[in-house]
Design brief:
The complex is a heterodimer of chains A (528) and B (319). Chain A is globular and about 70 Å long. Chain A has 18 helices and 19 strands. Chain A has helices at 5-16, 21-29, 32-36, 75-81, 128-140, 175-178, 189-195, 247-255, 270-275, 304-313, 316-323, 344-347, 354-363, 380-394, 407-415, 434-442, 459-466, 472-488, and strands at 52-57, 86-88, 95-97, 100-106, 109-114, 153-158, 163-168, 209-215, 219-224, 238-243, 261-262, 279-294, 328-330, 370-377, 398-405, 423-428, 492-505, 508-509, 525-526. By secondary structure, chain A is an alpha+beta fold. Chain B is mainly α. Chain B has 13 helices and no strands. In chain B, α10 crosses α11 (271-280), α10 runs antiparallel to α12 (284-312) and α11 packs antiparallel against α12 (284-312). The longest helix of chain B is centred in the C-terminal third of the chain and has 39 residues, at 228-266. The chains are: A alpha+beta (528), B mainly alpha (319). The interface between A and B is large, with 58 and 46 residues.
Chain lengths: 528, 319
């Protein structure tokens, strides 16, 4: 169906309109979503069992072992093979029980009570011993990329049958959501020990599907786990991921009928997907935040007023309209409106105010303007974003010069030892627990704190406080302080949250987007 | 049976493989290491710390000197081990064995199209030089050379895969698994690649054939009363066959290189896609492996062309 003018207008309105959490929930569950957001809702019917879902995936997995991989694009594959100890709510990312329920008998102890009767694909039980093996592996294995995730864990002990006790060095209530990510994906101890490095390619989990083959840069195939513990799931007999790095080509493969479903589409592709016959498009907000990272360890960005000026000088609405086709949420901080820890008081901190920006620059000694070297990437969509940033900052007297390269090259140059450029136009892909987001970017020695500069006074304590209490209201308050400190000190310039944008043929039913923006397929079924 | 001259040729070519492979892989290895960017950062994952990145460098030997790293790779390669992809852990030899047949099918099909269409066009143009037919064929040939293959590829997809769903828009099927489907998947990429090839074969054939047909000995054949068709087939084409073979050999090598672009448009998991992805991510064992394989393939094609040429023109073998 071609995109009509009306639909385009709806999209523009959708970009300008920012629903609160409650409205968002209502929208997600109701048909209103399709009307207000101008997006197609996926019709629900009676789920059917059977069939193979063919998915166009934009990246080859870095590894299919959750502990040794590293790419944020691995999750759609990993979720099919592995269950996590903790799961999250699709709309708000609040933690909920997965393979385990949890409680904190005291602040320095986390007890996981395991679901009984769950078995790995190789038939071994997913019991307390298996969970202890996994958590120790994550913390200590030489090849584990996740050691930092469980840095607060002192020891993992076996408690009563089906209970695992995590003794903590200090209070850490971020752990449940950390265990909803890679660190909480349980692998078979037998398989991990017997296969060693080969487990990267022949993973054994408890997930709804089990691995059949992984041909590098070609296909990942998974087939139904007949002994899956969730009643009635999965609906699909299997999933075939075709690795197609170019999302435009991936979309073509769905339009041409080679695949059924494609995800991570760029917003610019929405009109093309809308025009195609028999294709439905779903979309929803995610944590993926396009932003300017600052190196605040040296001039000129060590001056808070310059960083604030940049934040005032950016017209985020215009940025979204010009570079994201209107399909994104302007960002006031590193959490979107829908997130449980979003803080409204921070949201109004930097309205578009070029005069204020000029004033701040004058106060900081740059009355006649200044030049800033930024680094970024060479792809067309990023260059388009650079053009808008250059133009918006030029208006307040900041001359931006971009040096571009590949993602690997420029990220390493900015965050690594070279320290190239004063700012990086890139994105933060989001983490299930916000404490990770903030500690990974703003702690003194964090890799994503490019200058390894001292954070503003109080931030470290506020971050600790966010992990101190389990109660969600307490955590919200702690995160409010964290977000205020980060944004008042303008340690970053968040620009917008990218929407998850997926297209599928009309036979694909039951798919729901989630706030993490990484597809899960266990509710998906095929019709016809 | 092979003549002594042919055996000597094969021997010389095999000896050439060693220095060419060493030089090519060394230069490519140097280029990868010179480029900024660090595979250790990618390997360390999203929650990377400086410490973890340093650990990974050590774990994968990326902190050793350039020459030691190259020597390590070369030593393993000498023992038949092309090592594993740094990123996915798949043995490089397996990746190449999987991707190469896909690329080979597309290149072979493109070569067949180039020759099957280019030769008749070239002959037609050469036998009617200066006519409107010659002009149109050469005009088309110029267009074929000028049209970028990625653009043609997209037009082909839009027309034959999306508007009329005759061929698939993306992907490939292994020839060993289903030959008919494999060919159906390869036709559009091969056509996109072949456009330039058809044009080149037609132009080269025309120019050499025109030269032969206007030579003095052909004039003598006409004077002796030989039928024009007999002159063309028995004397004209036989004389240009070595030329044509050289063109086909060069074309095969160029088509191999051109698959990099066409495979991206059609999302074909072949050698082109493999090396592009590996180079972007600085996965040097894969890049080295692909370069190694390509050098061997190109030398093999050249050898085959030389052997066939010496069969067609025995004087070549004796030189």
């Amino acid at each position: 169906m071609p995109a009509t003018k009306d639909e385009s207008k709806k999209l523009e309105r959708a970009a300008a309109w920012q629903p609160g959490r409650r409205e968002f929930l209502a929208l997600i569950s109701g048909a209103a979503a399709s009307q207000a957001l101008g997006l197609s809702a996926v019709a629900q019917g009676t789920p059917k069992r059977g069939g193979i879902l063919k998915v166009a995936a934009p990246a080859n997995p870095s590894s299919l072992d959750p502990a040794t991989g590293g790419s944020g694009a691995d999750h759609p594959f990993l979720y099919t093979i592995f269950d996590t100890l903790v799961e999250w709510d699709f709309e708000t990312l609040e933690a909920k029980p997965g393979l385990a329920e949890w409680h904190y008998p005291d602040p320095n102890t986390l007890v996981l009570k395991l679901r009984q009767g769950v078995v790995f694909h190789d038939g071994t039980p997913c019991d307390a011993a298996a969970v202890k093996f996994n958590l120790d592996r994550v913390r200590q294995d030489q090849r584990s990329n996740l050691k930092a995730d469980l840095a607060s864990v002192e020891a993992v002990e076996l408690g009563r049958p089906n209970e695992v006790i995590l003794k903590l060095k200090h209070a850490d209530t971020a752990l449940p959501l950390i265990l909803s990510d890679r660190a909480g994906m349980m692998v078979s101890a037998k398989a991990a020990q017997e296969l060693g490095k080969e487990h990267d390619r022949k993973p054994v989990g408890t997930g709804a599907w089990k691995i059949v083959t992984w041909a590098d840069n070609d296909k990942v195939v998974v087939t139904r786990n007949e002994k899956y513990w969730k009643p009635g799931r999965p609906y699909l007999d299997g999933i075939e991921f075709a690795i197609i790095p170019e999302v435009t080509t991936g979309l073509r493969s769905v339009i041409g009928g080679q695949n059924d479903y494609v995800y991570f589409l760029a917003p610019q592709l929405k009109p093309i997907a809308d025009r195609a016959k028999n294709l439905s498009v779903v979309s929803g907000p995610t944590l993926y935040c396009i932003q300017l990272y600052f190196n605040w360890s040296r001039p000129p960005l060590n001056d808070v007023r310059v960083r604030q000026a940049i934040n005032y000088a950016i017209d985020r609405q215009a940025f979204v309209k010009a570079t994201m086709g209107g399909i994104a949420q302007p960002a006031a901080m590193d959490l979107p409106i829908e997130h449980w820890a979003y803080d409204r008081t921070v949201a109004g901190l930097y309205p578009y105010d070029p005069e204020k920006a000029k004033k701040l620059l004058a106060e900081s000694g740059y009355k006649d303007g200044l030049s800033i070297n930024m680094v970024s990437y060479t792809d067309q969509l990023t260059v388009q974003k650079q053009e808008v940033i250059i133009e918006q900052l030029r208006k307040v007297g900041v001359n931006v010069k971009f040096t571009n390269g590949t993602i690997a090259e420029m990220s390493a140059a900015f965050f690594g030892t070279e320290k190239k450029g004063e700012a990086l136009l890139s994105a933060w892909t989001g983490r299930p627990d916000p404490s990770l987001t903030y500690s990974l970017m703003f702690s003194k020695d964090a890799y994503y704190n490019a200058g390894r500069a001292e954070p503003p006074p109080g931030l470290a304590q506020a971050l600790d406080a966010s992990r101190l209490r389990e109660n969600i209201e307490d955590r919200k308050r702690a995160f409010a302080t964290v977000q205020q400190l980060v944004m008042e000190n303008a340690l970053v310039a968040p620009l917008c949250f990218q929407y998850e944008l997926d297209a599928m043929t009309s036979k694909v039913k039951g798919y729901r987007p989630n706030l993490l923006g990484k597809p899960k397929f266990e509710d998906v079924y095929l019709e016809g | 049976m092979l003549t002594q001259a042919s055996r000597a040729l094969i021997g010389r070519r095999l000896l050439q493989v060693v220095p060419v492979v060493v030089l090519a892989t060394f230069i490519v290895f140097g280029l990868i290491k010179l480029l900024p960017g660090d595979v250790a950062v990618t390997l360390a994952g999203e929650n990377a710390t400086d410490q973890r990145i340093a650990e990974i460098r050590h774990l994968y030997g990326l902190d050793r000197s350039f020459f030691i790293q190259y020597a390590g790779w070369a030593w393993n390669a000498l023992h038949g081990d092309l090592s594993r992809s740094l990123l996915s852990g798949e043995p490089v030899a397996d990746e190449i064995m999987r991707c190469f047949p896909t690329t080979l099918l597309i290149v072979a099909l493109a070569l067949v199209f180039s020759l099957a269409i280019g030769i008749p066009l070239g002959i037609t143009a050469a036998t009617k030089p200066g006519t409107w037919l010659d002009g149109s064929i050469m005009g088309l040939a110029s267009l074929g050379v000028a049209v970028p293959n990625f653009w043609l590829a997209m037009i082909l997809v839009a027309t034959f895969a999306l508007t009329y769903t005759i061929f698939p828009a993306t992907g490939s099927v292994a020839f060993s698994a289903n030959p008919a489907e494999a060919l159906r998947h390869a036709i559009l990429p091969a056509t996109a690649l072949a456009a330039g090839g058809i044009a080149e074969v037609a132009r080269q054939l025309r120019s050499s054939l025109v030269e032969i047909l206007s030579s003095q000995h052909v004039r003598t054949l006409h004077a002796k009363g030989l039928a024009p068709s007999s002159i063309l087939w028995k004397h004209g084409l036989k004389n240009v066959s070595v030329n044509l073979l050289t063109v086909a050999g060069l074309l095969a090598n160029r088509l191999l290189a051109a698959t990099v672009v066409v495979e991206a448009v059609f999302a074909v998991p072949g050698m082109g896609n493999l090396i592009v992805r590996a180079a972007i991510e600085r996965d040097f064992p894969v890049v080295q492996g692909v370069v190694f394989a390509m050098v061997v393939v190109v030398i093999a094609i050249n050898l085959l062309v030389d052997l066939l040429a010496s069969l067609l023109d025995p004087r070549i073998g004796r030189r």
